[in-house]
Design a protein that fits this description.
Strand order of the largest sheet of chain A: 2-1-3-4
Oligomer: heterodimer
Structural class of chain B: alpha/beta
Strand content of chain B: 5-15%
Number of helices of chain A: 15
Order of helices and strands of chain B: HHEHEHEHEHHEHHHHHHHH
Order of helices and strands of chain A: HHEHEHEHEHHEHHHHHHHH
Mean pLDDT of chain B: 83
Strand content of chain A: 5-15%
Mean pLDDT of chain A: 83
Radius of gyration of chain A: 29 Å
Number of strands of chain B: 5
Shape of chain B: elongated
Number of helices of chain B: 15
Chain lengths: 379, 368
């Protein structure tokens, strides 16, 4: 390349950078959005239940039954509300004021004493409309029940060793010993930031230029397709790196997510994914040439798959095979795997190499198609 | 018919033409609904299924064999694979093939039979800590079900667990009603915020403001297209969830549609507010996005609101999505009555009134 085209390219990039600096909304998205998202995923989104409002209806009133109610009261995580009837409690459950309730049938005390097993005497009802909460309520209510029945058995002279204790598990979590869901959520959620800054922002800005005809004006003025694409790519690539750096700093320094891999690997992964995201944004804007439609398409083609199918929030292996197949062509999925690995496990190349190949292919593919489509649209 | 009504109708007609007038726009409003309907109910699951369970059995005795046999019959694990040694174990976890590896120590069976059981080691991949813990829960409940002392089993008072409204705790039943809220958010916010921004970019907003239409009529005119779009999208979702996914609608359909009105008005108010502080379509879209993302994430759609820190829980009262998700799930799945949601409806009304009056005041100040 001779000096003149290089000079022209530099001028184009400079123009683009000036445009970014002039419109505050672009910079706000690139800096405020990562901070906001990291704060939400770091402290707002939690899969660990904290307080459960549990209703209790004691129809029996015998000493063992009262002791069971007390056990529920003293179980951490339960806030017990005593009800006067099953109807009252089911109304509260329907209105969402309770997450579950326990009904102690008449005859519970007698049954504890005689040891007869005529019919269930304790019923745990949960709000199945909230599956995650329902699982938690059921598990904890059963746990508290087990504690109580151990104590009742002990009162009647049975030994302290129970069947549940015969086989116990000793758990160790590799890479994330505290098993904080935040440690995997935060590196994964960077996907969303990259999708927004890389794909959405680029799609909007470039679509506006198509809408206003400035892209065509540049092309007819003798700027080559290559120069045009590169001049769009470089400024937004830099903007993406800023957003990526904010995410990494927030995750590592503010939320204490351990970073076991090297910074070099981290940025290699980030840059490769950013390339694909930018390519996607450029492609959509070139095809749509209208801000409103480009925004809608990016939201549905880039952002939502990044949220739903990338595996940082929902387990890919639990999805049906067809959906798993769809997820395997989504670059975000490889990015999430790579990010979680670099943060928590380190530079494990047996995982990173396939992910990087996937991300690289996506980047080359999207940019290549955009290059091709740009010419076609002009003719 | 008096002049005001005619003017209002003309405005609504014009607005509707902008939103669903041409086929590309119409397609872009329907396509996401179809896509979300096909993907979300399957993808948004916190269940743990289809994983391979890896076991490093250093014992090989009868009790270990029995435990492995029982674990291979649970839906959480599609297959049970044996590992040969420590190096194997490290490899399957590094490559994310294994979510959980169980390690049974030497002489395990001998010790259990002698009445001195030792713990089984479970190693889980901390990168997927949440799924790992759910899977461990399954393992634990299976271990607890293996009978050891039958005399003790008989002495326990029996207990039953019932999950109301969703017996098997299927996630798709939980997702579908929430989708009505999510999709309405997308379109209602974008339709209102972008339409005002577009008018401003094209300079037609000033014309509207000096026309005989009162500011409140303008608000109504801008909200009705959003309402129409939300109603169409909600109907598509409800039809698909009842007939395609087979999720029974337990409550009163009419009351759900009724509650959709204050919800869309609240969204329209927010959309209008965004458009008053933005000067271009691009800024309006980014503004919508900046509001919508936290709104969806902190609505109870992804994780329950009860799990959030106290301050955030209070803040979510200003989030219309939170209120409508509770209403939609309640009416759809639990046959809740509108009166169960008085608080939520009042909150939606307040959001609509506050955002709309602030934005209209801002408009008027700009005009004078």
């Amino acid at each position: 390349m001779s000096a003149a085209p290089l000079f022209r390219l530099a001028a184009l990039i400079k123009k683009e950078l000036l445009q970014i600096l002039r419109d505050p909304s672009t910079l706000i998205i690139a800096t405020l959005f990562p901070v906001l998202l990291m704060l939400i995923f770091g402290s707002g989104i939690s899969l660990d239940s904290t307080v459960v409002r549990l209703g209790v209806f004691d129809q029996d009133g015998s000493p063992p039954a009262r002791r069971l109610v007390e056990t529920y009261r003293h179980t951490p995580g339960f806030r017990v509300v005593e009800g006067k009837s099953t109807d009252e409690l089911s109304d509260l459950l329907r209105a969402g004021k309770l997450q579950g309730f326990v009904v102690l049938d008449q005859g519970l005390g007698r049954q504890v004493l005689t040891g007869s097993r005529v019919r269930p005497v304790v019923q745990i009802v949960t709000d199945g409309a909230e599956p995650n909460g329902a699982n938690f309520v059921a598990a904890y209510a059963q746990g508290a029940f087990a504690v109580w029945s151990e104590q009742e058995l002990a009162r009647r002279g049975y030994g302290p060793r129970s069947p549940a204790r015969a086989f116990s598990l000793e758990t160790r979590a590799w890479f994330n010993p505290s098993t904080k869901s935040r440690n995997s959520l935060l590196p994964g959620s960077v996907t969303l930031v990259m999708m927004v800054v890389g794909a959405l922002l680029t799609a909007l800005v470039v679509a506006r230029e198509w809408e206003r005809g400035t892209m065509e004006a540049l092309l007819t003025a003798g700027v080559s397709r290559f120069e045009l694409l590169v001049s769009k790519l470089i400024p937004y690539f830099l903007l993406g790196q800023v957003a990526f750096t904010i995410c990494v700093l927030m995750a590592h320094l503010y939320f204490d997510v351990p970073l076991r891999g090297s910074i070099g690997t981290l940025y290699l992964v980030g840059s490769t994914f950013l390339g694909g995201a930018l390519g996607m944004g450029l492609l959509i804007s070139t095809l749509m040439r209208n801000q409103y439609n480009a925004a809608q398409v990016t939201l549905n083609a880039a952002f939502l798959p990044g949220l739903m199918l990338s595996g940082f929030l929902f387990e890919i292996r639990s999805m049906p095979v067809a959906i798993q197949a769809v997820s395997s062509i989504i670059p975000a999925r490889y990015f999430v795997t790579a990010m979680q690995t670099v943060f928590q496990a380190g530079d494990v190349w047996s995982v990173l190499t396939p992910s990087l190949i996937g991300l690289g292919l996506a980047a080359v593919g999207f940019l290549g198609v955009t290059f091709f489509v740009t010419r076609r649209r002009l003719e | 018919m008096n002049a005001t009504v005619i003017r209002l109708l003309a405005l609504i007609k014009k607005e509707l033409q902008m939103v669903i007038g041409d086929t590309q726009s119409l397609r872009l409003l329907i396509a996401p609904v179809v896509m979300m309907l096909l993907v979300f109910p399957f993808a948004a699951t916190l269940e743990v299924k289809n994983n391979a369970l890896y076991v490093l059995d250093r014992d090989g005795g009868p009790v270990a064999t029995e435990i492995i046999e029982r674990l291979s019959h649970t839906p959480a694990f599609s297959q049970v694979r044996r590992l040969r040694g420590e190096a194997d174990m490290r490899a399957v976890i590094d490559r994310q093939d294994a979510l959980v590896v169980l390690q049974i120590g030497p002489h395990f069976s001998e010790r259990v039979l002698a009445g001195q059981p030792e713990p089984i080691q479970a190693i889980l991949d901390g990168r997927r800590s949440n799924s790992g813990q759910i899977a461990l829960g399954y393992v634990q409940s299976i271990l607890a079900g293996i009978p050891v002392g039958t005399a003790l089993d008989a002495a326990r008072p029996p207990l039953v667990v019932r999950h109301w409204y969703n017996q098997n705790l299927d996630y798709y039943r939980f997702i579908l009603p929430s989708l009505v809220a999510i999709i309405a958010t997308f379109s209602a916010l974008i339709v209102t915020a972008m339409s005002v921004a577009r008018e401003r970019e094209q300079g037609t907003l000033d014309q509207l403001l000096v026309s005989p239409l009162t500011p409140w009529m303008l608000f109504v005119g801008k909200s009705i297209p959003a309402l129409v779009v939300a109603l169409i999208q909600a109907t598509i979702i409800l039809i698909a969830s009842v007939f395609f996914y087979g999720v029974e609608f337990r409550g009163n359909v009419l009351s759900l549609y009724l509650c959709l009105v204050p919800y869309v008005l609240a969204l329209a108010g927010i959309g209008l507010f965004i458009s008053t502080v933005c000067s271009t379509q691009q800024q309006a879209f980014l503004g919508v996005f900046l509001c919508m993302m936290p709104g969806i994430l902190l609505s109870g759609f992804v994780t329950p609101i009860d799990n959030m820190p106290e301050i955030l829980q209070t803040l979510t009262w200003a989030n219309p999505i939170r209120h409508f998700i509770a209403i939609a799930k309640g009416i759809y799945l639990k046959a809740s009555l509108v009166s169960d949601f008085t608080d939520n409806l009042i909150a939606l009304g307040c959001i609509a009134v506050v955002t709309a009056s602030v934005s209209l005041a801002l408009f008027q100040r700009r005009l004078s």
